[in-house]
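SEQUENCE-TO-STRUCTURE ENTRY
===========================
Question of interest: how does this chain fold, as expressed in backbone structure tokens?
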Amino acid sequence: MSELRIREQDGAITFEVRVAPRATRNRVVGIQEGALKVALTAPPVDGAANEALRKLLAKALGVAKSDVEILRGDHARIKVLRVHGVSARGVRFSEG
């Protein structure tokens, strides 16, 4: 398993996420090619998967959903996210 590539700047972290929509449950799957792989139950319709992603990562990182921002890939499976209020050192995702 590779390591998550995280950039830290101005009190926020930025990293890539690979989303698998229409899964059986919302969960962090692991790290794939330097990106966080996430499975979501929501379909990629009307922003439902994006909202589910923001909610899952906010909970996992202990921040408000409004602190999780999708910078790129709003309509793609590969996204770049910025999370405010977290340092790269404090990021830990448990799989499952």
In short: The chain has one domain: 12-90. The chain is about 15% helix and 40% strand.
